[in-house]
Write a structure and sequence with these properties.
Blueprint (H helix, E strand, L loop, with lengths): L1 E5 L2 E3 L22 E3 L1 H17 L2 E8 L4 H10 L3 E6 L8 H12 L6 E5 L10 H9 L3 E10 L3 E8 L2 E8 L2 E5 L11 H7 L3 E5 L31 H15 L4
Parallel strand pairs: 1-4, 1-6, 4-5, 5-11, 6-10, 7-10
Antiparallel strand pairs: 2-3, 7-8, 8-9
Helix pairs in contact: 2-5, 3-4
The chain binds flavin-adenine dinucleotide.
The site of flavin-adenine dinucleotide has 31 residues, from helix 1, strand 4, helix 3, strand 6 and helix 4.
Length: 254
């Protein structure tokens, strides 16, 4: 079975960003720690579990800007067999459509049975790239998957919808976007970290699909600080009176 996993490197989710002096981007401080996208970790773990159960190869694909090798070696230590890294400085400020097209160009010749991606990249949060790659490859997509059963020629995926669970069936090839709960990603073992250094990582400096910035980032601002809540005290009748007064005069919702 050929399994491809899409992996984007993102700033650590604990990063406290500052806005730059032109207010049109955050400050890309060199001290920012870059990590494997949290949802991509679920995708990677699931790809490895499918390989361990059914045999085959797991290949990772990353469109990056030159800081991704450490994370690719980490997923190789988890069990990914090979990696493809497209390095392109234009990734900074690029639009998600061009990223999806670049990924589709790299993934198409691999003829994968299953492509796994994260449901969203925790920095830009477009939740777009996975479904867009499926569309560009003309294959089905099942998004936000939290359970997966793979068989010889297809799979059954579980998805949490509002207040219910849904199960979908698809034949191969299919693209899955991984949600929390799909699995518990493993920690790489030290011997596997050593072996990962020797795994094949193909680095491409150019591909035909251009990385573009057709959508420009104009302004970045932090959300307005929420005002602290008011604590009300008194008898039940006084509490009701204060609540009704607050909702009519202050919040103006009734
Ligand atoms: C200031 C600035 C800096 C930027 N820096 C980067 C950067 O360093 N790297 C970058 O890729 N884009 C960068 N971008 C571009 C922007 O983040 C893209 O739109 C983005 O790659 C795709 O959207 P998303 O990250 O919201 O992906 P989503 O659609 O939320 O991603 C869903 C999933 O698609 C896969 N995926 C997404 N992007 C990639 C990728 N590049 N390689 C492999 N799999 C991927 C992952 O599995 C991910 O979980 C930058 C944009 C700006 C404005």
């Amino acid at each position: 079975m050929k399994i491809v996993v899409l992996m984007k490197v993102v700033p650590d989710t604990e990063t406290r960003f500052q806005i730059n002096s032109d207010a049109n981007d955050v400050v890309w401080d060199p001290s920012i720690e870059w990590i494997i996208g949290p949802y991509d970790e679920y995708a990677v773990e699931e790809a490895i579990r499918i390989k361990e159960k059914h045999g085959g190869t797991v290949i990772s694909v990353t469109i990056g800007k030159g800081i991704e090798e450490k994370s690719i070696r980490k997923i190789m230590a988890m069990g990914v067999d090979e990696g493809i890294l497209v390095n392109n400085a234009s990734v900074n400020g690029s639009d998600p459509v061009s990223i999806a097209k670049a990924i589709a160009e790299v993934v198409k010749p691999l003829q994968a049975d299953i492509i796994l991606a994260g449901k969203t990249a925790t920095d830009s949060n477009d939740a777009f790239v996975g479904p867009a790659v499926a569309e560009l490859l003309s294959i089905p997509v099942i998004t936000e998957v939290s359970g997966l059963d793979v068989n010889a020629d297809g799979l059954i995926a579980t998805r949490d919808a509002a207040g219910r669970k849904e199960r979908f069936e698809s034949k191969f090839p299919v693209l899955i976007t991984a949600d929390k709960g799909l699995n518990e990603p493993r920690y790489p073992k030290i011997p596997d970290i050593m072996k990962a250094k020797k795994k094949k990582l193909e680095t491409l400096d150019s591909i035909s699909s251009p990385i573009t910035n057709n959508v420009s980032l104009l302004k970045v601002e932090f959300p307005a600080q929420k005002e602290g809540g008011n604590k009300i005290t008194g008898t039940p009748d006084e509490l009701v009176a204060q609540l009704v007064s607050g909702l009519t005069t202050k919040e103006k919702v009734i």
